[in-house]
Structures are given as C-alpha cells and as structure tokens.
C-alpha cells in the first residue's frame, strides 16, 4: 500500500496507479484516479438570476482493497461511499456527451471543494469538482454495486420536523396508494399527455404502517416518473424516491421532487426488493393495495360556495383544500401578513406537536406566534 505526501492512502498495482477512494477525498487538488458509478446528474440553476450554476452529480465508488498472498490477488469488496460531483458551466460540453446514468467511469485529476450546506444530497464534507486537467473515461465491463446503506431514509416524523429547513435532502420508501387520484389497482397506465399538461404527478405513499404522505413530481420529474411507471409489465407497487424536499401544502406534509431526485420501483434496488418482500408476506400486499377513505381521499372538484357550505355544517370536521383558480384582478393597497417566530420573525411551520421556526440558526420549537 503506497502513501501520498499528504498521508492519504492510495492503492497501487501493475494495472492501476494512484487509485483513491471517496473516503480519502479531501479539500484541494488531487492527481489521483477515482472509479465510480454515476447515479444521477442534473443542471443546477440560480432561481433568482436564472443563470446556470453548473452540472451536479451523485457518485458512488466501490471500496476494494488488494492484498497479495503467495502471488495470488485477493479482492475484498466493502461498502461504497456516496459523494457529490460538480462540473462548472464552461466544462459541461466537454464531459456531458460521455455521461450516462448507471455507467461506471474513471476520473484522473480533480479538485476537492467544500460540499454545500443547502440541499445536500450526501454526508461527505467534500465535493469532487472537475478541474482544467480532469480526464473522464468509461470503464467497460465493470459494475459498481449500489449498497443499501447508501440510501438515507427518513420517517414521516423526521420529514415533518425538517420542513423548510433547506438542509439535507433525504430518501423515502413505501407503497403507493393513489396515483393522480386513482388507486394503484385502477392506475394501470398513466396518461402522458395529461401529465404533460398538468406538469405534475401526485402520489400518496405509505411507509409500512406509518401515516400516508404526499409525494409530488414536477415537470421533467413527472414525465420521467410516468415513463418509468408505464414501462413495467405489471403495475408497480413499491416506490423509492431519492433526495426529496419536505414542505407543508394545505397544512399537510408534502414531499416534492428536486432536480437530483431518482426513482426506483419494486425490484430495481435492494431496499425496494426488501420492502416488496415484506408486502408479499401473508395478505400484506392485498392490504397495501386497499385505500382507507379516512386516510386518503381522492381529489374532488368543489366551488368556493360548496366549501363555505361545508364549513357552516355543525358536523364538519377539519379538512384541507387545494385551490386552483384564475386571478382576475390584483387589489393594491391591501395589507397581508404571515405567521412568524416571535424571536427572529422568520416564518414558522407546523410541527408534529408545536410550531417550529424555519430559521436554522434559530431553530426554536413551541415558538410564540406573531403576525408579520
């Protein structure tokens, strides 16, 4: 085992020189080689200036240590590491033609930069940034396994407490209840034309016996979900979505897709295989396909008059409504307000048992609400 001047370990052999693992990536320039599987890549845009920041990637390596014993090469495969990659706008055209999700690559020469603190997709403190002398090439006949431990799953309660914090983006797995208002049994094939017009897909997902969660796919993510869903011979049941953003819409928890989101179903990866296996035990699969009206309700078109009539009923229960309307006019001079934290005056969100400040530096729970 050779050692670099900075003390980081590398693997050397007659075939490959200076191969580095993600766990050893630190800040600064590296004249080493990385080998990794490309999980996903996406464009990162500045939402305010509408400018392209660069191309971001989610990468996984395979930690393989070589030992030579009696002239025999023994290969031990350990858990892979997830890291984020980045290509600046001026270099995207050079590397993009070679990039394909699921392929395995080797990268010579790169720069280790600080991982971002907002909307992080992995735990690693560094980001692999392509530099001026980086060389990317495809590794043929090579497979990098996607380890189960590489996923970062959150429960309903964890998503609920992290709404609007803009921190790490976590993964969710569960079985689908409704797809665009249809039960999983009825939604054999999704209408691509309708989804193109609506620009979204709404999925009700339940994780084991936990609460039902809304998962929204927007724009390209909605189109990709539709194509993947329709590509299965049998209607898929289990859904795994990577890097979702937790919000509250209409007072309820909603998980929304991001540019970095990946979708897996049924037998795609080990966590979906394991989850599907649990559903198949006994009558769990039949129960999973059933829709409990008290938990999940199909969307129903109502006028504002009907909503007011419902509210006036003595037997009316708490309910949330999603309103789709056309703006006829804007009345100027009218005041507006939002519910804020009494300490830092940042908008608060509803937590499991109390109101929570969305300011990560404040982070107060049980906050006193004030109108701003």
TrEMBL record:
Lineage: Eukaryota, Viridiplantae, Streptophyta, Embryophyta, Tracheophyta
Name by which UniProt lists this protein: Replication factor A C-terminal domain-containing protein
Organism: Brassica oleracea
Family matches, as PANTHER family: OS03G0429900 PROTEIN (PTHR47165)
InterPro entries (UniProt xref): NA-bd_OB-fold (IPR012340)
